[in-house]
Design goal:
73 residues, Alpha-Beta Plaits, two-stranded antiparallel ribbon
Length: 73
């Protein structure tokens, strides 16, 4: 079974509340990466996003810093 993908807009990370726990990188490294020079989480620009993994990343974020504009996840 393949993971669900969506052509919707990319997730957004509110860096004002992000604690850099790196949980999003662990569950969804194809979307999230850590910019060591600037010390913030980057979101990849993709044609489609793995919905299941994004939902998991959103759910494990301890401060609810990840959102999906135009989505209810």
């Amino acid at each position: 079974m393949s993971a669900q993908t969506s052509k919707s807009s990319p997730p957004e990370v509110d860096m004002a509340c992000c604690t850099l726990c790196m949980g999003c990188l662990e569950v969804c490294p194809e979307v999230f990466s850590f910019n060591e020079a600037a010390e913030f989480i980057e979101v990849a620009e993709l044609k489609s996003y793995p919905e299941d993994k994004l939902r998991e990343a959103i759910n494990i974020c301890p401060r609810n810093c990840i959102s999906r504009p135009g989505s209810d996840t």
